[in-house]
Amino acid sequence: MLAYNKQQQQAIYSLSIYATNQRAVLLPKLIAGAAVPTLRNLTRTTPRNLRALALFLRNSTELQFSTLVDISVTDKLLARGRFSVIYHFLSTSNNQRYSLQLFAKETTTIPSLAAAFVCGQRLFASASWLEREVWDMYGCYFAEHGDLRRILTDYGFTGHPLRKDFPLTGFTELVYNDAEGRVVSEAVELAQEFRVFHL
Questions:
Q1: Mind listing the pLDDT tens digit for each residue in 112-152?
Q2: Please, what is the average pLDDT of the chain?
Q3: Which of 54, 53, 116, 47 is nearest to 85 (CA)?
Q4: What residue segments make up the domains of the chain, in order of their start?
Q5: Half-sphere CA count of 58, side-chain side, radius 13 A
Q6: How far are the Cα atoms of 22, 47, 129 from residue 52, in angstroms, in the given order?
Q7: Mean pLDDT, to the nearest integer, of 187-196?
Q8: Beta 141-143 vs 109-111: how paired, if at all?
Q9: What is the H or E stretch that residue 16 is in?
Q10: CATH for 6-155, among 3.40.50.2000, 3.40.50.300, 3.30.460.80, 3.10.450.50?
Q11: Is pTM, for the whole model, over 0.90?
């Protein structure tokens, strides 16, 4: 078990305490809920309030979460939204991590943290690559992203491979064609009928 001194504990729990105890006064409508598990702080928000809360995390003199480390997505098919999108932040000055979670449907537009402000400065420069990866794998659309294109799959690829409704075999496969002397893309032919299981 990790042991923290009093000052480190205050740095870890400051946003969660701030969010849960004083949100009605200080951060109205930005936070949908907060949780403080043993080793991870998590705050739930909505896509509409994501940029404001991320700006608060970055610019707060106490918190100083200046680095966006990762964006993780889970395809859950929940009533609140199909995708659980979690932003992972790092404060190098406090040596702490924090997570912001939001739920998005297939048609939900998520505001980009890579979009430039009026002055031309980005909120988090690392978000550009991470948002492209999420869009490529899951199809979550990020508004005002300047370069939202495929990053891990081919440009002609159809669909988003990490969605639960994407077939395991895919739609096309690359094979070497002896007649043409090159690699070509062909439609996948299954040996048996594709079956749909209703759970």
A1: 999 876 566 788 989 999 999 999 999 999 998 888 888 88
A2: 77
A3: 47
A4: 6-155
A5: 17
A6: 17, 10, 21
A7: 66
A8: parallel
A9: helix 6-22
A10: 3.30.460.80
A11: no
